[in-house]
Amino acid sequence: MPPKKKQGNQGDFKQEDVLQAIVIADSFNTRFAPITSNKPRCLLPLANVPVIDYTLEFLNSAGIQETFIFVCSHADQVKAHIAKRWSQSEMDVQVLVSEDCLSAGDALRDIDAKSVIHSDFVLINGDLVSNVKLIPLIEQHKAQRLKEKTPVMTMLYRKAPPGHRTRCKEDDLVIAVQPSNAQLLFHQRASQGNALQLPVELLLDHVDVELHYDLLDCHISICSPHVLPLFTDEFDFLTRDHFVKGILVNEEILGHTIHVKIIEEEYAARVSNLQMYDAISQDILSRWTYPFTPDGALLSTSDSKCSHSRHNIYLQEDVTLARGCTLEENVAIGQGTVIGSKSRISHSVIGSNCSIGNNVRLENAYILNNVTVGDDCVITTSLLDDGVKVMAGVKVHSGCVLAKKVVIGNNSTLRPATRLMAEAPTDDFDDTPGAIFYFIFHSLITAEPLFVCDLGAAYEYKESADDDEEVEDLSADLWGLRLESDEDAGDDWEASDYEGDSDDMNDDFGRNSPEATESDMFLEEVIGTLERGIAENISTENIVLEVNSLKHAYGIQIKEVNMLVTQGVLDLPLKDMEDMPPQQRRVSLSYANFKKFLPLLRNYIKNAESQLNCLLSIEDLCSKKSVLMQVFMKLIHMLYETEVLAEEVITTWYNTKTEDANGLKCRKEIGPFVKWLQEAEEESDEDESD
């Protein structure tokens, strides 16, 4: 149980001295669906203790005095749990509720509006398990802020080389650090692409740089009070990664820096997906998270004591083990559970009041409360929610998730990565993208349950193929296991089963349409924004904000943004030129055409790489709009004169070999201008030598 509140001098602290923390309880994704349709992820039991209790106990033990839990989904359940479990703790825990937030960035903007944070604070998620000692790290952060003034955030990383058990694919990252002051210089998730896009300027501008691919992001951030207003000012910051990228890209403008702290001995990891749920559960059972272990007093949630024996076997009171059953290693069993004869259990967690039959094999199985498993069942690497009934002879293969009260009939077999729920989806089932997609799409094909028996039924849950970019690859890599997709394994339905018109389906869902790629839609939106900017005299700063918002909405990479913004800016004067006689087109192209949007171009075309992207974009546009070729040289000259393009980049692009007819034509058109640049440089060199 959490320690009782101290009486006396607790209120004597000055407001600015109070150590504060923000816990974002919502994940804003559907990784644990359909279980999270009826309970929040932060209350999901981890080794028979709600995940958020690990998070809050970590903060409480570390000396945090005031914690704000921000929650959107299932707020009543979270508030009830906090009132029951943490109302008498030494740490003051308050729950902040909002139903309108769609991202962590929205949550932080909402917290900023409430003006509850008054000093440096710790920012974490409600699914964090850690035993890191925070106070020394907070003091180091404050000392660095006093010394350098610019640090706005300190991010914690833990040594975890590739292949480490708590390192999953989506958390693979590469960072560059300046050793002298641990300043973060570069940050890229490996999942964003196979190629490492390391800016050349990083190595040119810094004498000493450390590159790391051996770190795990702890998702513990020690923040200055400036962080929340920065999120408020930049509404396109949807996640902490967006914030980090924004600070790194605009360091000179914003005047802020981010620093890192690397830990080696202590533990920190997020229950961010099913693979991490498995890995962290095993770490808890193996006592890597000490003192946060199943037998520890800090995490005791009931009057029942938990014993710890050899091979990390944890048993609460009133557990019944039949003769001949075997608990092999890393097993936790909750109060009132019965294990049948000849059953073998390994690396598994079983909740309270469960009934496990005879000759059952459980391996890496996570079974919550009041679950029944019949005789001769085999369950591997799967998660079973409260009240699930698995009848005799059932085989549950790796990666399955069974939601509350699902019933599986005798001798059934669940293929890998199957997700089941007890009720057919309805329009009020959930407001998550996956659930809405399931209702709209799958109910058009079949409303039949996947499994039916006398005691109930089970309906399959599938997420949208167009779901959040963060879960893009997880359907094929569930629990860290490479699994066959539905297309490879053969699905239970075919597209021909749908009786409606296939064209109507594609129109409804915006998929499979070559005319409507996300890049095309982004470009169309950018052009519309620029036209509205001229008509309504919108400031460049607001146009940049709108374009950044579109970038995140369509998931466009920065390289493509540079190219498409360039095309969008060129589209407006080119439209006017199309109706002009050829001899008037060069005359009509002038600085006035681009004066309004030059600051916009400069916002994106900042370095050699983005300038090259700009040139490639113009070259590509020449193949689509013949009118551009006629003004190509004048356009490049004008961009050079206005310092959007540098001489070195122009000559580099010009000297790049190409066999493309359009590319050759562009280089031929620009040849006289490049020659003029070279001659001007030679004359300048001669003048300097004289």
Shape: elongated
Runs in which pLDDT lies below 50 for 5 or more consecutive residues are 4-15, 427-447, 465-477, 482-516
Main sheet characteristics: 14 strands, mixed
Over all CA atoms, what is the radius of gyration?
A: 29 Å
CATH topology value of the largest domain: Spore Coat Polysaccharide Biosynthesis Protein SpsA, Chain A
In brief, what are we looking at here?
With 690 residues, the protein is of the alpha/beta class. Helix content is 37%, strand content 20%. The chain folds into three domains: 19-193 and 200-274, Spore Coat Polysaccharide Biosynthesis Protein SpsA, Chain A, CATH 3.90.550; 308-497, 3 Solenoid (UDP N-Acetylglucosamine Acyltransferase, domain 1); 518-689, Alpha Horseshoe (Serine Threonine Protein Phosphatase 5, Tetratricopeptide repeat).
Polypeptide structure, described:
Belongs to the eIF-2B gamma/epsilon subunits family. Its main location: cytoplasm. Residues 516-687 form the W2 domain. It comes from Capitella teleta (Polychaete worm). The chain has 690 residues and is an alpha/beta fold. Helix content is 37%, strand content 20%. The protein folds into three domains: 19-193 and 200-274, Spore Coat Polysaccharide Biosynthesis Protein SpsA, Chain A, CATH 3.90.550.10; 308-497, Hexapeptide repeat proteins (UDP N-Acetylglucosamine Acyltransferase, domain 1); 518-689, Alpha Horseshoe (Serine Threonine Protein Phosphatase 5, Tetratricopeptide repeat). The strands form six sheets. Strands 15, 16, 18, 19, 21, 22, 24, 26, 28, 29, 31, 32, 33 and 34 form a 14-stranded mixed beta sheet that branches. β4 (66-71), α2 (75-86) and β5 (92-97) form a beta-alpha-beta unit. α13 runs antiparallel to α14 and α13 (518-536) packs across α15 (558-577). The model is unreliable at 4-15, 427-447, 465-477 and 482-516 (pLDDT under 50).
